[in-house]
Write a structure and sequence with these properties.
153 residues, mainly alpha, 2 domains, three-stranded antiparallel β-sheet, two-stranded antiparallel ribbon, 3 helices, 5 strands
């Protein structure tokens, strides 16, 4: 009797049924995480019994998607959009406070307040660019620590 290959829902490869821990997950992916489409809970793939979610018991081979498919898939993610958002917001606030400061300087009696607004804009810009740089560095650290060439010791 010939065994038909079964597709693993996490890695997507067709494998012999003897290499599967359940009806839809292979042994290699047993430590990976899966997310249920019904209740959206994430759990280790080895806790799924015959394709049923351990939280809500929703049973379907197509009911789950991979959360962490592989290390290479995690490394190909683009950088978080919050990095660009914080940077852009910092520059916009700097431009607004800088222009407001220049307008106040050009008016009678608004010199000190105008300079204060420009200085406040510089501080806001540095804070937002600093947060952006911190998040970018944390993202790079996260990507580098998930590379497969790292040793466990």
């Amino acid at each position: 009797m010939v065994n038909m290959p079964v597709e693993c829902v996490i890695c997507g490869t067709n494998k012999n049924p003897s290499l599967m821990i359940s009806i839809d997950t292979c042994n290699d992916c047993s430590n990976g995480f899966r997310q249920c489409k019904q209740c959206f809970s994430s759990s280790v793939a080895s806790s799924w019994k015959d394709g049923a979610c351990p939280e809500c018991s929703y049973n379907s081979a197509t009911a789950s998607v991979s959360v962490s498919v592989s290390v290479s898939a995690r490394m190909t993610r683009s950088k978080p959009s919050i990095i660009d958002t914080l940077s852009t917001l910092g520059w916009i606030l700097f431009a607004m406070t800088g222009l407001s400061g220049l307008l106040l300087i050009s008016q009678d009696g608004g010199g000190i307040l105008g300079v204060s607004l420009i200085i406040a804009g510089v501080f806001q810009l540095s804070i937002f660019l600093g947060f952006s740089a911190i998040i970018d560095q944390l993202y790079k650290i996260n990507v580098n620590t998930s590379k497969p060439d790292k040793s466990d010791s």
